[in-house]
Amino acid sequence: MKQLTSYEGLHCANCGAAMQGEFCHECGQSIHSVLKPMHHMVEETVETVLHIDGRIVHTLPPLLLKPGFLTLEYFAGRRVRYIAPFRLMFVLCLLSFFVFHLAIDQLTDKIPANGHPLVSVNSSAIEAATSPAEVRKALQDELDGLQRARDTGVLPANVLEQARVGEQELRQAANRRLAALGAAPTPAASLAAPPAAAAVNVTDTKPRDGLPKATEGESKPVRIAWLPDVVNSRLTALGHQMQRNWRTFKHGDPAASAEAKQRMINGVFSALPPTMFVMIPAFAVLLKLFYIFRRRLYMEHLIVALHSHAFMFLSLLLITLVGMLSTWLRPHAAWTGYALGWLQAALILWLPTYLLIMQKRVYRQGWPMTLLKFWFVGWCYFWLLTLALMVAAALGMAH
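Now predict its structure.
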């Protein structure tokens, strides 16, 4: 049973009004002091986290499965049990871009920088050999290929380490095959890493002859008459930095090229959240224009935009996670990879279907008019988003 507390005779420390409860009815300040023992702070933190978790349970399932439900609940005044629209969109935006960034990093790590192939070994010829002589010949061919890759002098230190591990794996595969054929194993060879001098040479990032220098081929300064000089200077600096990053990525040594690639990717992903924060009110403006005769406030369209983008970020998060899980499971159990692929396709198809049903339920128009407006709003938003993403990509490449 909740204990009754009397606040008679107590006054707000901020405005002096007579207290009628835990919070002042004039200024809203709590009667409780923020100076508390540590165990009280821990208790309040746990209570806050559990409260948020409860709202997550009430918010995420309908956000994913019930188009327009959260928006209509918010309009009806039932808001306490759900996460606020902006906070929901903000958290899902950051989380989805973070996971998508991880997926892009894993994908780009498998792609060679500026055309230089990464070191890879193939023991299939060794395992398919039918005599000890064929085993030794297949092993020598693979080792000669690794040595030729080392002799190019362009491999960074981490790839040289991969070559060393690959050589060890090839020798182990050859010894297993020789043992199966009843022959003596190959003599042990030195598996030590290349000399320090060679490591220094391959990681040296100083400009070589034939490579464009940082100041060569830079574009002319930006001069737009109606822009202030400081903006023109900033645009010029961004253009030069973009050219330097791209030149290093295309023509630099592998280590510098990989660094430039990662720098540009990080820059793009750092520019995406602010870009989306600009696109959300722009999307609300489109809804306001296409539903101007519905006599709704701009804030109502903004709530629709926030919930729509929260759903899109949640979908992006789930699609990315399912794709990463499919890639991880496919080599071990092919059927799980195919099943997750179908799930990923279903999530992609659910994305436009959800938004269409949401628009129909929130604005309560007939299907013909809803389909027409959905197509026009989507078409306009697509080109606005494309332009915004191009700007974000340019800013990221100039990082």
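Residues 127-202 form one domain.
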